[in-house]
Structures are given as structure tokens and as C-alpha cells.
Amino acid sequence: MAGSEVKVLGTWASPFALRVHIALGIKSVKYEWVEENLEAKSQLLLESNPINKQVPVLIHHHKPICESLAILQYIDEAWPSAPSILPSDPYHRAVARFWAAYIDHKWFTWLKGVASAEGAEAKKAALDQVREGLVVVEEAFGKCSKGKDFFSGDRIGYLDIVLGCFLGWLYVAEKRNDVKLLDEEKMPGLAAWAIKFCLEGAVKDVMPDKDELLDYANMVFQAMAKAKAKLNAPPNN
Amino acid sequence: MADEIMLLDWWSSMFGMRVRIALVEKGLKYESREEDLNNKSPLLLEMNPVHRKIPVLIHNGKPICESPIIVEYIDEVWKDKSPLLSTDPYQRAQARFWADYIDNKIFQLGGKIWTSKGEDQEAAKKELMECLKILEGELGEKPFFGGENFGFVDVSLVTFSCWFYTYESFGNFSIEAECPKLIAWTKRCLQKSSVSSSLPDSLKIHDFVLQLRKKFGIE
């Protein structure tokens, strides 16, 4: 049973787990998806990722691989037949890895900062930072794509997956804050890229519905706000 | 045509040291340029406009930034000598995981130790020791993280070893007391000329940090 050789531990809302879905789809690899409950993590998850205890985890031949960027590269190397996920040239690979690190360590941190920012001023500053980051990535898109549809050229690859997995949560931030972040005027390349990315075969069947994601986000943030209010409530309440 | 390799560096940077080690492992000749981090050169700003940080490797005029990315690049371009990563995809994934773990933890925790005091410092010390113990566990009985051979994870972690004395001194603790195997591993690594020629003296780093603390008014 080929599917049981490859297992993915993830959650439907996790953009990092979505990366693994997409990459395995590109390689036409059959796999078993295990939906984790992050409030009650499975024994398998805790054993497979004892250090970070996070999703996603790829389990191949009973061996776990953790951290989505390491997983993407593993998938590319373990199933080396085309289509490839990373570029073949070492310099272009270094450029792709650089922008993946920027997106994960800088831009996504800023996106998360929108949710945790308190007060109108802080929210605006956080949203501006996300937008400025997208302007930087827009320039990178121009250089990497060289006029083609995707960062990787004619087909989606590493950087497309790394950024594309966040499109749902970017939509969530736009709706919850009533702003436009992926602006067709300021980032025409990325705006066009986003539409094409979501239509790609390996993406459209696995990408969570953005309104379902919005409902889920609203529910999570509401629960967090309630819990915080309870903590801050006066003692004789 | 001979390769032109330049490294924009700073002597006490653990990240710059990683690149030095990799270049020496591969037997490569390169020009090293010491940046003044308070007055960054136009070349650095041109080659790393996004982060404006060292190290930057410039290979035949093209910049590569971020030390783990630079080390992988060096390993891929000059793949015939002293490979730092295994050819096996699973081993490579493990190496990347641990290099990422080291990058997420050690620098920030170590930095907190010499820039803070009291409860904050104690918390940072505790967490650093937990991380180093985890890394010591991962090393196990192997001579190197890479197994029989010095590899990617070894390069990523060993450059912090010249900062250990600084952490211990300002934090008033001993890493060797709790992680003797890890310290034995650092000594094993220092027997390699690529490592010993790339790491500055621990006392020099300590004195440098002493000056920094005075400058920033940290008691």
C-alpha cells in the first residue's frame, strides 16, 4: 500500500502543513494525511517531533522529517524525478533559500504581529510593515520570475510554495482589519501571481477555503479575547 | 578562469566564522574584508541591501547572504572536496533541522546572558543549558554531529564555542559541568585547522564584550 509509506501530520489551517500538501502534490506522491488536534497532540506527533512538538511532520519509511523548509527540500531530494521544486543551479538555490528565510523569519513574523498589535496606532504600524515586506518581495518576484508566471518560472516551485501557503492568512488579516495588503497597484506582479498560484493543480485541491479560514480565525481570536478578558477581570467579579 | 571569492566579515561573528571554516575545508583562496559595523561599506550595502549584515560571500561578483545558505552554497559548488552534507536526503533533512534549531536558540540566549542580569539572565542561562543538553544528546557517542566526519551541524554550532567563555564569565556558570561531551566535541573540532584558524581566541571575545558592556552601560 504505497500511501502508507508517506504520512503527513498536519492541521488544515496550518500554512506550513499546506506547503507539504502542495509539494507532495507536485511530485504526485500518494500520502496519508493525519489531522492533528493541537489541543491534544497525538503520541505519534510528540514522538516524531519531540523538540518542537509542532506540525507539519513528514513521516517517510517510518522516519520523521520536521520543519517545513527542511521537508520541502527533502521531498525534492527523495523524489528527484521532475518536476523539481528547487532550482538546479546552486546560485539560484541560494537566492530561493534567502527569500524563503526572509518570508519566514521577517515577513511572517510581521503578519503575526498584526494579530498581537494592540490599539489603532500599533495595528496600523503592523499592517504597514506587512505591506512594506510585500513590496520587497515584489522586487524579488520580478528578479526571480524574469517575466514568467511564478517565482520558479513556468511552474510553481520552492518560493511559490513558501509564500503561497500564506495567502489564506493574508486574506484573513485583510478582512479582519478591513485593509488591502496584497495591493494590485503597489504589487502588480505578486497580485497576478497569487491568482495563478491558487489555480495551480497541486494547490487548488488542497488550499483551505479562505472564508472557512476567516471563520476559524474569528473563532480563535474571539476565544483568545474572552480568555484574556477573564484574566484581566477584577478579582471580585 | 579562477574563481574570485570575497567574504565580507566581522572578526567576532559566529556567522562569519562558519563561512571561514567552510572555505578552508574546501581549500579555497579568498579575500577577506573586515567590515566596520558602525560604518558599513557601500559594497556591503550593495551586496546585502535587504539585511545589511555580514557575512556576505561574493563569488565572481554575485552575493550570497545568510550563513547557513552560504555554507550550503559552498558545499554544492565545491562538492568534490570535504563534503559537509550527506548525499542521503534524510541525513540532509536532519542536518538542516539541527542547524535551524541552533540558529533559533543559541545566539539569542547567549546574547541575553551577557546583556541582562537578575531573573532575565537566570532564565536565559537555564534555557541555554537545556538547548545545549539537547544538542549533546543529539551528538550522542558520535565524534561529530555529521557522524565520522565533520559536517554542516558541526560548522553551525562550533563557532559559538569561542563565545562560551564569555557566556560563562558574565553568567557565572560552567557549560562543561553540565555538558562535558559537548565541550569534548568542541576540543575535537578545534584540532581541525579549518576550525582553529577560523575562530578567534575566547579571551579576545570576552574583552571585546567587556568593552561593549561598558559602552552600553551594562553593569
Q: Could you walk me through the main structural features you see in this protein, from its secondary elements to its overall organization?
A:
- The complex is a heterodimer of chains A (237) and B (219).
- Chain A is α+β, with helices and mostly antiparallel strands.
- Chain A has 10 helices and 4 strands; from the N terminus they run E-H-E-H-E-E-H-H-H-H-H-H-H-H.
- Chain A has a 4-stranded mixed β-sheet, with helices on one face.
- In chain A, a hairpin with a 2-residue loop joins strand 3 (57-60) and strand 4 (63-66).
- The model of chain A has no long low-confidence stretch (mean pLDDT 95).
- Chain B is of the alpha+beta class.
- Chain B has 11 helices and 4 strands, in the order βαβαββααααααααα.
- Chain B has helices at residues 14-25, 42-47, 67-77, 89-115, 118-139, 152-158, 161-171, 175-178, 180-190, 193-196, 202-215, and strands at 5-9, 31-34, 56-59, 62-65.
- A 4-stranded mixed β-sheet of chain B has the order 2-1-3-4, with helices on one face.
- The radius of gyration of chain B is 17 Å and the shape is globular.
- The mean pLDDT of chain B is 96.
- Classes of the chains: A alpha+beta (237), B alpha+beta (219).
Summarize the structure.
The complex is a heterodimer of chains A (237) and B (219). With 237 residues, chain A is an alpha+beta fold.
Strand and helix map with partners:
The complex is a heterodimer of chains A (237) and B (219).
Chain A: E1 6-10, H1 15-26, E2 32-35, H2 43-48, E3 57-60, E4 63-66, H3 68-78, H4 90-116, H5 120-145, H6 158-164, H7 167-177, H8 188-199, H9 201-204, H10 210-232
Parallel strand pairs in A: 1-2
Antiparallel strand pairs in A: 1-3, 3-4
Helix pairs in contact in A: 1-3, 1-6, 4-5, 4-6, 7-10
Chain B: E1 5-9, H1 14-25, E2 31-34, H2 42-47, E3 56-59, E4 62-65, H3 67-77, H4 89-115, H5 118-139, H6 152-158, H7 161-171, H8 175-178, H9 180-190, H10 193-196, H11 202-215
Parallel strand pairs in B: 1-2
Antiparallel strand pairs in B: 1-3, 3-4
Helix pairs in contact in B: 1-3, 4-5, 4-6, 4-7, 7-11
